[in-house]
Amino acid sequence: MGVKAARKRKLAEQEESSDSDESVELPPPTRSSDDPIPRKSKWINKQRVLVFAARGISFRDRHLMKDLRNFMPHSRDENKFDKKEKLFAVNEVCEMKNCNKAVLLEGRLKRDLYMWLANVPSGPSAKFLVENIYTTAEMKLTGNCLRHSRPLLSFNPTFDTEPHYKILKEILIQIFGVPNGHPKSQPFIDHVLTFSIFDDRIWFRNYQILSEDGALAEIGPRFVLNPIKIFAGSFGGATLWENPNYVSPGAHRKLLNSAAASKYMSRVTQKTHNEVDRPEKTYALNELDDIFAGDAFETAQEIVEKQSKEENEALDKESRQPPKKKAKKVKKPKIDKEISVSAVSNGKSPNGKSPKGKSPKVTGKQGKKIKNHKVAAIKLKKAKAKAKAAQA
Fold first, then answer.
1. With 45 labelled, which of 12, 159, 184, 301 sits at a CA distance of 20 to 30 A?
2. CATH code (residue 197)
3. Is the pTM of this model over 0.85?
4. Locations of Basic residues compositional bias (predicted)?
5. Helices and strands counted in the chain (H then E)
6. Cα separation of 240 and 126, whole Å?
């Protein structure tokens, strides 16, 4: 009985206190911070993209690969792929990484970059030549966005015109589109990825959404995809489509070099043609032919002025030239008659030289040697003559 009475008392006290405190507002029994954290929506579209490169890419291509990973939270990285292995080995790498899409960058000669976009393992896959590469660090643009935020994908209307563009559009959507509810993604949409077709190429741009009015600011990177082939399988298989207008970069460089080399040849041929076609005698023009074309008095004045100018110029030139110096006459030295006579008697000219037509007399040892040589030559001639006579 005592327990029941105590309960009745407590209930009566509570009723009295509630009646007295009706005017006072009490805080709620639970706070908002105590509420359980709302769970994210289920991650249904579980797309995982393997973004990696083969050996032999340049530094710019490597920075482009990093930029692609930065705005793709559903991407995974891998070490460089060995060129010696076949491309079918990429499917095994994707299975090991639990990825169903692949982006492979393949470089050649440190110049050209090729990009593979593939759906692993069933396909299809597409091969592109990447042109006009500009990375975010290189451009230094004003745009900025939250990292790992979900982008809007914008496509040109020409993607819906032809069947091969429709295939490429679906591949790009599945690779670059961030899945809704991805654990690493942010619940914001603050940038746009645009894919537009111009000149049979796909132009890629990344813009920040500044306001709801549609104001945009470019973030980067930017590049151009030149499609080469579309395959039915992953990194191979039957070719579904091939670009008929594609020219390899090596052939393009070869054409440029040949065009530069042909400039010299064209210049040389043009010179030869000009020399051949040049007339031997041109038309002889006379200044007096146009005297009566206009006013005769004015033309006469012009002719007189020209003549006066020419005369003045000739006088100025003569005045500027220094006067010619007169050459000094050199006096001949006088020779005494006695000296000249004595020199001639000795067989010499007055200047000390022997007169013309006469050889000077040789005396002493030299004279004896000359005589001996002459005698020996005469004896040899006689001996030869006797030998010839004996033979005859």
1. 159
2. 3.40.50.10480
3. no
4. 1-10, 322-332
5. 9, 11
6. 10
